[in-house]
Amino acid sequence: MLDDLKANNRAWATRMVSLDPEFFKRLERQQGPQYLWIGCSDSRVPANEIVDLAPGELFVHRNVANLAPPQDANYLSVLQFAVDVIKVRHIIVVGHYGCGGVAAAVSGKRLGLVDHWLHPIREVYEDHHAELAAIPDEKKRLERLCELNVKRQVRNVASDVFVNDAWARGQSLSVHGWVYSLSTGLVNDQNVTVEGPGDLGKL
Ligand code: CO
To answer: C or N terminus of the chain, fewer CB within 10 Å?
Structure first.
């Protein structure tokens, strides 16, 4: 079963050791990534590859539509560990154009449990209804919703108590919002970076 994947794994591990004999031994001792990536589960948006970082360099949390819901224990556990224990310097919320989760949220179709998960995106849609309704092209409208969703999730992260406690004790920590393009492979910085509680007002 899955013999091709196991063969891939053996070849990869061999290649990594041939490039750096101490690679896995060093990683085994500890991880010290500078970045927490909060991204979509979409298979086309692989965190490490996009920013060309090796194992050990990126702490990753992914879910459908890159949400940071303040009541989600999974996301909060990752966030607190990244901020309090690993002490990452940067948290990057990474959405992507063409996100199926974002489209599903506003499709009006019943999909099941994921409808509840995607509820925050419908709230973003309602909050920006006038701007979005003025975009006649559906693809462009959804792309804008992807951007607005990222901005909202940056606000969620930056207003979180763990993040604000870190700032209060003088820890260096920035929250960023990017949107990745499936068609070019490039990230589009949304310029919504928050470097302290004073920046929250601009979101
Ligand atoms: Co997506």
So the answer is: N
